[in-house]
Specification:
By secondary structure, the chain is an alpha/beta fold. It is built from two helices and 19 strands. The protein is globular, with a radius of gyration of 17 Å.
Length: 179
């Protein structure tokens, strides 16, 4: 790739970031019903009864799917991959996401000199609660009914109906449902 092309691509990327940040500033001042309409247009899929609080950031919104009855608390960040087809983020049904949770479906390969881009999907199955300030890394599937304790870093798949916490997230105990 020529140097001029690289500079042009860098300029496009920087402008995308600038306008994306302006867009999010604008969306944050809107009332929740107006924010909801905008997110239904820009995200790949938004189910019924979805609540997205203020200060939520979506990097590449067309690579993010939200199921029914999803609640995303303020300050969460979603980073799918721009380059990879598999670098998407999907939250299924009945999901609760605490404040300031980060979903990172893209990264870099530290084994390569130029830190080659890497990406893989993040899938959160039904009936999951993710506590505040968690980080969910690429290639992770959070199993149905799992609970992720506040501050955990999820770097591998989590089993169904178990509670996880820590850095990296480890099983704490099984989740028993009393309904």
């Amino acid at each position: 790739m020529s140097q001029n092309r690289k500079n042009f691509m860098r300029l496009l990327f920087l402008n995308y970031s600038y306008f994306n940040n302006l867009f999010h500033l604008f969306v944050d001042i809107l009332p929740p019903f107006a924010r909801s309409i905008i997110f239904k247009v820009i995200l790949k899929r938004v189910g019924k009864r979805v609540f997205i609080d203020s200060k939520v950031y979506f990097r590449y919104p067309k690579k993010i799917k939200l199921g029914n009855d999803v609640s995303i608390n303020r300050g969460c960040e979603f980073y799918p991959s721009y380059y990879s087809k598999n670098g998407y983020i999907e939250l299924k049904n009945n999901i609760r996401v605490g404040p300031s949770v980060k979903f990172l479906a893209a990264g870099h390969d530290y084994n390569t000199k130029y830190l080659k881009d890497t990406a893989d999907k993040i899938i959160v199955e039904d009936d999951v609660w993710i506590g505040a300030n968690c980080t969910i890394l690429q290639g992770v599937k959070i199993g149905r009914g799992a609970v992720v304790a506040a501050g955990a870093v999820v770097n591998k798949n989590l089993d169904d109906f178990k509670i996880y916490g820590g850095i990296p997230a480890k099983e704490i105990k099984k989740r028993s449902i009393k309904d």
